[in-house]
């Protein structure tokens, strides 16, 4: 596909990429890595994928380590109660064997690979290559990673780096409130605020404005077959009933009427450039107790002010810039200094 050459085409192209990812279109992204933390969980993004998958008659399988409340149409493979990783792989294979197209969601990739000992390559080959389905894995970036006890693995890459290398799409979840606060700080040339565990404060793991109910910000990186990545930031609001058609017989959800995921820069709260500071001043004004702006009368008076040495600039014959000075009675003329 040729690259868009104007802003409107670029917006349509970016929304089309995210729409295909959410709707689980074939070969859009075989392995999607979702990065979240306590300040913004990936649950709204995963719920939207589940709804759109079930509306298209896609088999949804959840390898659950954390989730307890799931939709009855979702096939659950309990990961927390499995004794070995082989048991989890066997459960996933059995759940996928009776359906043409499937969506496999793992809500904790760290526990899947590290705690249960599942080879990520084997899992990828099972879901993507053998059954030609879609794999979605969630990795919590604020999770404490235990160092390897073996000295031979001291220089081995971390699990997150391996997952990023294998992923065909990477989605980073951000809270809308935190994104807006960071943007307001940048516009005022102030340091961006930190939230949650990033503050370094003892006992702080989640900010008060975490998991904004208005929606979720998605920082997406799509990796094309050519190796060229495409990055964009989106805003996904919570879905409502009117966003979908009436479900067909035998399906829990109806198909999507119109795409409602948008680019973040199109969000009214983000595109508003008049960010208000603490003192009520606009983002591009200084917080002072007096007004620095000029009235029309003051501007006209400033234009009529004659600048120093302005007459010297009107001289002809290449003498522009010559200083004109008239000696007064109190001036003492020194002939010796003048000759030097």
From TrEMBL:
<keyword id="KW-0539">Nucleus</keyword>
<dbReference type="InterPro" id="IPR019519">
    <property type="entry name" value="Elp5"/>
</dbReference>
<dbReference type="GO" id="GO:0033588">
    <property type="term" value="C:elongator holoenzyme complex"/>
</dbReference>
<keyword id="KW-0963">Cytoplasm</keyword>
<keyword id="KW-0819">tRNA processing</keyword>
<comment type="pathway">
    <text>tRNA modification; 5-methoxycarbonylmethyl-2-thiouridine-tRNA biosynthesis.</text>
</comment>
<dbReference type="InterPro" id="IPR027417">
    <property type="entry name" value="P-loop_NTPase"/>
</dbReference>
<dbReference type="GO" id="GO:0000049">
    <property type="term" value="F:tRNA binding"/>
</dbReference>
<feature type="compositionally biased region" description="Acidic residues">
    <location>
        <begin position="327"/>
        <end position="340"/>
    </location>
</feature>
<protein>
    <recommendedName>
        <fullName>Elongator complex protein 5</fullName>
    </recommendedName>
</protein>
<dbReference type="GO" id="GO:0005829">
    <property type="term" value="C:cytosol"/>
</dbReference>
<comment type="similarity">
    <text>Belongs to the ELP5 family.</text>
</comment>
<dbReference type="Pfam" id="PF10483">
    <property type="entry name" value="Elong_Iki1"/>
</dbReference>
<dbReference type="GO" id="GO:0002098">
    <property type="term" value="P:tRNA wobble uridine modification"/>
</dbReference>
<dbReference type="GO" id="GO:0005634">
    <property type="term" value="C:nucleus"/>
</dbReference>
<feature type="region of interest" description="Disordered">
    <location>
        <begin position="319"/>
        <end position="340"/>
    </location>
</feature>
């Amino acid at each position: 596909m040729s690259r868009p050459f104007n802003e409107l085409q670029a917006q349509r192209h970016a929304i089309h990429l995210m729409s295909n990812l959410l709707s689980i279109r074939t070969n859009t992204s075989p392995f999607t890595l979702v990065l979240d933390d306590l300040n913004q969980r990936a649950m709204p993004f995963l719920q939207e994928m589940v709804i759109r998958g079930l509306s298209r008659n896609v088999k949804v399988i959840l390898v659950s380590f954390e989730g307890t409340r799931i939709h009855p149409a979702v096939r659950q493979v309990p990961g927390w109660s499995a004794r070995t990783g082989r048991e989890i792989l066997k459960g996933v294979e059995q759940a996928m064997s009776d359906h043409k197209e499937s969506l496999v969601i793992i809500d904790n990739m760290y526990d899947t690979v590290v705690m249960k000992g599942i080879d990520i390559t084997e899992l990828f080959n099972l879901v993507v290559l053998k059954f030609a389905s879609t794999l979605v894995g969630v990795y919590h970036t604020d999770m404490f990673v235990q160092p390897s006890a073996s000295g031979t693995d001291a220089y081995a890459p971390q699990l997150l780096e391996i997952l990023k290398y294998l992923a065909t799409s990477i989605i980073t979840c951000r809270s809308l409130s935190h994104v807006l606060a960071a943007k307001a700080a940048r516009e005022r040339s102030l340091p961006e605020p930190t939230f949650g565990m990033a503050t370094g404060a003892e006992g702080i793991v989640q900010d008060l404005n975490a998991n904004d109910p208005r929606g979720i910000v998605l920082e997406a990186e799509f990796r094309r077959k050519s190796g060229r990545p495409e990055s964009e930031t989106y805003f996904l609001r919570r879905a409502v009933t009117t966003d979908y058609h009436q479900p067909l017989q035998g399906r829990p959800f109806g198909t999507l009427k119109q795409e409602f995921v948008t680019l973040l820069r199109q969000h009214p709260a983000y595109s508003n450039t008049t960010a208000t500071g603490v003192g009520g001043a606009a983002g591009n004004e200084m917080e002072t107790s007096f007004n620095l702006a000029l009235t029309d009368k003051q501007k006209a008076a400033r234009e009529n002010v004659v600048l120093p040495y302005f007459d010297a600039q009107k001289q002809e014959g290449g003498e522009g810039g010559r200083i004109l000075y008239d000696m007064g009675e109190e001036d003492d003329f020194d002939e010796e200094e003048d000759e030097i």
